[in-house]
Design brief:
transmembrane, mainly alpha, 9 helices, transmembrane helix
Length: 202
Amino acid sequence: MFLPCPGESAMPFDMWLRVFNNYLLVINATGDAWPDIHKRATLLHCLGTEGQQIFYTLPHTGDTYASAVSAIEKHFTPKVNVVVEPYAFRKRAQFPHETIAQYVQASCGFEDKSDDMICDQLLEHFLSDSIRERLLLESDLTLDTAITLAAQMEAAADQQAPLKVLLQMPSAGPVIKGVILLMYLILFRPPLRKKKIIQVCY
């Protein structure tokens, strides 16, 4: 059910509609397999009690399944403020425990924003100074390069986090720390590249 009782739905309508369309596919109700009136009735039933009450107050609901979907979508899909959303994106810093990929996907009202604009945004609002410093070393930084390098550094930091915790334990003496470090190098050290053997013919 999309909205069984008053309040906010558990998921955005566009996501719920994808789930509902998958349900229609499972019960073989897509295309002309079912009469349009049956699909419309199924849609309204799955809206839930509160969802149906809202639906019957909406204008331009029509008599077809498509018109019902359109009316519901217009009501439940929030309008994007093309002035506020870009401003909010520019002011938004990376949240703790938010990955680079999640930060890049943050909502923004521009559809025509350039990669350079997003790249500048990342450099300005990265939480990690070390990632920022590493990216600034690139003479021709692109958005793809920034995301790739930042993700690699994030992954490396995640791997090293348990090691740092263990090494900072007061009870860990020099010998134990040495063993921990050795085990870490064995488990996580990248494989050595094989040197190419160049054969010279005389």
